[in-house]
Write a structure and sequence with these properties.
single chain; 463 residues; alpha/beta; six-stranded mixed β-sheet; globular; binds pyridoxal-5'-phosphate
């Protein structure tokens, strides 16, 4: 299987190369040149299998050139062994026709662990084979950073630097990044927003001299290996609700479009997904784009669902590439307009293609709080604010007889202030991280300045 760039101007890579590279050299994102499909019988055979077995069957065709069966199976076993729930991604019922897919039983209590834990294992395998070292730099709105640190802490061939927007992540998120004591972990609190962090990261990737000198690698949600790992739970959830004999819809609290795009790949593989519903908070660029056809940047408005506080939704580029029929030149042109003019218009044909798969909804701050409160009363489920955004939009999009599955992307204890404000209940951290608030923090405050960041990273990395 070959991977090609959404902008059509970078070399084709294998899975392993695309994983270690992250962003393509033409600024694009890697996508599979063709998506492998599963037959109805193959999908039906997934029913009742352990999560790890489904993960193997779904991921294997994408990685076969890079990893053997034994390597992939070993990586999957190790990745999910530390989860706090044997089903890994359990499904609970909220109401008639509406289900919640709990993706918060990993070590950092957010769905990012599903991808990051296995990426840690796969990076380690690939680097050991090549006797290589790399420097991972990530930008985070909160959850990616802690998941990356958790996945890479203490690994021999990797140094990890995580940029997060100073003062704009929750205290639990910050402490999960600043309390690991391993010398290869560096938490950097940057002045600015998440988009600023993400932009500096992109600048580093486009600065080839630096990129090659430090062996820069990315694990942000643009990394294809992350998208792939997230495809798996669409299969486990859909099959347990009757797929392939029945269509299923999903609602996904969306920021960078990685999680929902994994659903699109599942659909391309043959899973009968009816609608993929984009749920946004007040930072609603995706909802506005799907509604109006114009993708237009506005300022970021901090919200109580901070992991979705973004205005540039990186993985949307992959969705556009499919909607434009794989036309890399057209995608490159849109991205150029975004950079120079702050927005672009999606062509009529591409907009229709997007609307065939995606629907969308936007949720205000008050509605988020209201949903946390009412859902606790209706079903007894305590939702994190991101999951509440999803549940609100999911409720609006239920179309019987198609079941709706809303993805619960974080544990409520990760956002205790918002949950307490809505319900009066302060959710407790699971036992295994109960001492988080007593552990010493280690963090470096940095300016939004590319040259200074690069100098710091080069100085601190192990050589
Ligand atoms: C990252 C994150 C999201 C957004 O996911 P994307 O893949 O960026 O769309 C939603 N909720 C939580 C809790 C997250 O950590």
């Amino acid at each position: 299987m070959r991977y090609i760039s959404t902008r059509g101007q970078a070399p084709e890579l294998t899975f392993g190369e695309a994983m270690l590279t992250g962003l393509a050299r033409d600024g694009g994102l890697y996508v599979p040149a063709s998506v492998p499909t599963m037959t109805e019988a193959e999908i039906a055979a997934l029913a009742g299998l352990p999560y790890e077995e489904v993960a193997y069957r779904v991921m294997a065709p994408f990685v076969a050139e890079t990893f053997t069966e034994a390597e992939l199976r070993g990586a999957i076993e190790a990745a999910y062994a530390g989860f706090g729930h044997i089903a890994r991604a359990p499904l609970v019922q909220l109401g008639s026709g509406h289900f919640l897919l709990e993706l918060f039983h990993g070590p950092t209590l957010a769905f990012k662990d599903f991808a990051m834990q296995i990426i840690g294992q796969l990076f380690q395998l690939a680097l050991a084979k090549q006797d290589r070292r790399i420097t991972i730099v990530g930008a985070t709105s909160g959850d990616t950073g802690s998941a990356a640190i958790e996945a890479f802490r203490g690994l021999d061939n990797v140094d990890v630097f995580i940029l997060f927007p100073h003062g704009r992540v929750s205290e639990v998120q910050r402490r999960q990044m600043t309390t690991p004591s391993e010398g290869n972990v560096h938490a950097l609190a940057m002045d600015g927003t998440f988009d600023d962090c993400q932009n500096r990261l992109k600048d580093m990737f486009n600065h080839f001299e630096f990129r090659d000198a430090v062996g820069l690698a990315g694990v942000n949600s643009i990394n294809w290996a992350r998208v792939l790992a997230q495809v798996v739970y669409y299969f486990t959830a859909a099959v347990s609700l009757g797929a392939p004999g029945r269509k299923i819809s999903f609602t996904v609290p969306t920021g960078n479009f990685g999680d929902i795009f994994a659903g699109f790949i599942a659909k391309q593989m043959g899973l009968p997904i009816d609608k993929l519903v984009v749920a946004t908070n007040q930072n609603d660029i995706l909802h506005r784009c799907l509604t109006s056809g114009r993708y237009e940047m506005e300022g970021v408005k901090p919200s109580i669902s901070p992991s979705m506080d973004i205005q540039i939704s990186s993985n949307f580029e992959r969705a556009l590439w499919f909607a434009y029929g794989g036309d890399g030149a057209a995608v490159a042109q849109l991205m150029e307009e975004l950079k120079t003019k702050g927005g672009f218009a999606v062509s009529q044909g591409a907009l229709e293609a997007l609307r065939e798969t995606y629907a969308s909804g936007r949720v205000s701050e008050e509605e988020t709080t209201d949903t946390i409160r009412t859902e606790l009363a209706r079903s007894g489920e305590l939702l994190c604010p991101h999951s509440a955004v999803g549940v609100r939009v999911g409720n609006d999009h239920i179309a019987p007889p198609v079941p709706m599955v809303t993805l619960a992307t974080a544990h409520p204890a990760k956002f205790p202030d918002a949950v307490e404000a809505a319900t009066g209940i302060r959710p407790a951290l699971p036992q295994r991280m109960a001492d988080l608030f007593e552990r010493p923090e280690r963090v470096t405050r940095v300016a939004n300045d590319l040259a200074a960041l690069e100098a710091l990273i080069d100085e601190r990395r192990r050589k």
